[in-house]
Amino acid sequence: MPTSEPMTASIDKSLPSYPVAKLESLKLDVGCGGHCLPDAVGLDMFAFPGVDHVHDVNQAPWPLANNRFEFIRCQHAIEHFANCHVVAREMHRVCKNGALIEFITPHYSSYASWGDPTHVHHFALASIPILFEQAVGASGYEVVANEIKFTGSVTDVFGWLVYKLSPKKYEKHLAWMFPANEIHTTIRVRKSH
Q1: d(Cα 185, Cα 125) in Å, to the nearest integer?
Q2: Which overall architecture, per CATH, does domain 16-150+182-189 show?
Q3: How far apart are CA 19 and CA 88, in angstroms?
Q4: 9 beta partners
Q5: For residue 69, what are the β-bridge partners?
Q6: Residue 185 and residue 158: Cα distance in Å, rounded?
Q7: CB 41 within 8 A of CB 52
Q8: Do the beta carbons of residue 182 and residue 156 sit within 8 Å?
Q9: What is the pLDDT of residue 23?
Q10: Which of 9, 86, 122, 185 could bond to 128 as cystine, CB 3.0-4.6 Å?
Q11: Where in the chain are the domains?
């Protein structure tokens, strides 16, 4: 008799059962909190709804297989992690060659970066690419996209114009006068076969 209940499976009996779609998902949401991407495996330090693996992401290894994922999202999470180098190495380990890792984090000039006392890092435009170079080496990744986002208010226009002309001059001289909002960075994982 057909049932409307989703099929579930467990790789080993000590692990909870998950819907089969979750077990087969090629997406990982790191530091997802209670807002895990649909059909993605959720990894967080706390047992929020939607989190599939409760694990301190600052500690390696993560409870995930090598070369499994094609996409990782890390949205408003990396600024909370104490050991970003471990996080970058573990992301690289669990990704397939060519996988994309998408980061969204507050820019250091944003109130959102400093307003939350649980933020342990504050990021500039070059921070995540430098992190990956230090953690996995220059041949282990490629920057697909890396940009500063502004809120779109009228007061952002001058800062945005200077940023478009010279991101380095914007961050060095004007970021505190014309604060940005977020940094959006996409990394492509490179692995030699």
Answers
A1: 8
A2: 3-Layer(aba) Sandwich (3.40)
A3: 28
A4: 18
A5: 95
A6: 23
A7: yes
A8: no
A9: 64
A10: 185
A11: 16-150+182-189
- Of the CA atoms within 13 Å of residue 184, those in its CB half-sphere come to 6
> CA 55, CA 135: separation in Å to the nearest integer?
20
Buried residues in 114-138 as b, exposed as e (16+ CB within 10 A): eeeeebebebbbbbbbebbbebbee
Provide the terminal-to-terminal Cα distance of the chain, rounded to the nearest Å. 47
Look-up of token digits 């014309």: 178
Q: Quote the pLDDT of residue 193.
A: 65
pLDDT at 25: 84
Residue 141 CA, chain-centre distance (Å), reads 14
Length of the chain: 193
Q: In what order do the strands lie in the sheet with 69-75?
A: 53-54, 41-44, 27-30, 69-75, 95-106, 182-189, 141-149
| Parts of the chain with a pLDDT under 50 | 1-17
Under DSSP, is residue 47 helix (H, G, I), strand (E, B) or coil? coil
Q: What angle do CA 106, 99, 132 make, to 5 degrees?
A: 50
User: pLDDT at position 4, please?
Assistant: 42
Please name the helix (run of DSSP H) or strand (run of DSSP E) that holds residue 44, with its range, or none. strand 41-44
> CA–CA separation, 89 vs 94, rounded Å?
9
Q: How far is CA 119 from the centre of its chain?
A: 14
Q: Distance from CA of residue 99 to its chain's centroid?
A: 13
Residues forming beta bridges with residue 70, ordered by sequence position? none
Reported as half-sphere exposure (CB side, CA atoms, 13 A), residue 83 has a value of 11
